[in-house]
Amino acid sequence: MxxxxxxxxxxxxxxxxxxxxxxxxxxxxxxxxxxxxxxxxxxxxxxxLPGSNLEVFAAxxxxxxPLDLFAHPDGLIFHAHLVRCRAMNRLHxxxxxxxxxxxxxxxxxxxxxxxxxxxxxPPSSTxxxxxxxxxxxxxxxxxxxxxxxxxxxxxxYATNLNRPFLYPMRGPSxxxxxxxxxxxxxxxxxxxxxxxxxHHDVNGLSSWEDRGVLRILHQxxxxxxxxxxxxxxxxxxxxxxxxxxxxxxxxxxxxxxxLPRDEWLLEMDLxxxxxxxxxxxxxxxxxxxxxxxxxxIGVNDGGGTIRNSDGRMNEQEVFWKPxxxxxxxxxxxxxxxxxxxxxxxxxxxxxxxxxxxxxDGWMGASLTFDAPRVLKPGAPLILRYGLYVxxxxxxxxxxxxxxxxxxxxxxxxxxxxxxx
Length: 420
Hints:
Elements: E1 7-8, E2 11-12, E3 23-27, E4 42-46, E5 51-60, E6 63-66, E7 68-72, E8 75-80, E9 83-88, E10 93-98, E11 107-116, E12 133-138, E13 142-147, E14 150-156, E15 165-169, E16 195-197, E17 215-225, E18 230-240, E19 246-258, E20 264-273, E21 279-281, E22 284-292, H1 299-302, E23 305-308, H2 314-318, E24 321-322, E25 325-333, E26 336-344, E27 354-358, E28 362-368, E29 373-375, E30 381-391, H3 396-408
Antiparallel strand pairs: 1-2, 3-4, 4-10, 5-6, 5-11, 7-8, 8-9, 9-10, 12-13, 13-14, 14-15, 15-16, 16-22, 17-18, 18-19, 19-20, 20-30, 21-29, 22-28, 23-25, 24-27, 25-26, 26-30, 27-28
């Protein structure tokens, strides 16, 4: 290991007096063996160091603390507590500034370790860009969608659940715009888990409510993708009947797109495949997408408002009507409005979808409201839905522009459920 010297002024510290004089430190302009009255700065120069990686420590009240290494346009930055050190010109000069130092027991320990260039790669002075949107796996079978390290939503997929779901759905003000369960009937509506995918009649079996016997079980995470404009998670699920037989293989991609003013869009792409036998989605208003809004956004509990793309308003006008989108907006804080627009994509086979909505705070897009739908082997059902998470109560024209952007975005086809 190359030798390193340390001194205060021109005097070497006695403990390391035999080290070569690579480091020279000054307190102000005085060389002093002990520090009594601190000058505004300590200046340390490193000359001709062959090493490429350094550890620098500062002793604060006789407790050594490691200094963190930071990138800086002018060089490398070390700092800890009241110490700030800048390494210039590939570590040939190290400047440390101490500010507002009051304690006479603070000592500069200086450079304590140097590794040779052959044993460690040189630190990069230019870090790689950090994606604005990230999707981060978490313990307990959860995936967090984040923008600039602030969570937008979280996907729950533990196999002891009856079906996966997303919660919270955070609006621009920070609070969740959805909730878990019906505010006045939490037992029979325990399946109202914020945002979820399921259906009330699959070959006569229900995955919709918690007392149903058809479960949607997570199999594996296919892909987690970060980016500056969007982040996404692709997962594989199986719809399993009570005998353990897989009825439907579902691949799901959830993509969070950043929008201005801290708004965002959740895009959900679904591919549903069946094996050797046909599967029938029965005629029902329940399924495929459900959204349980926060209590204060509901029309009954909070004075919120439901609107659809045809200009209709609230349950009496929107209930069981086809539309391109339905928006549910209301108060989320005092004097703060926010909401979610549930969007049906024009490529969906039943577009414009009928929407099942209630003034008690929930809305859903109904895949088979008008008639059953049969899934055949080799003919997957491809679907896309969007949830526009917004602040305030946008005009219908503003929501329509968001829907047009959503409708125009190309669909990247998901592969089938066979393991790749």
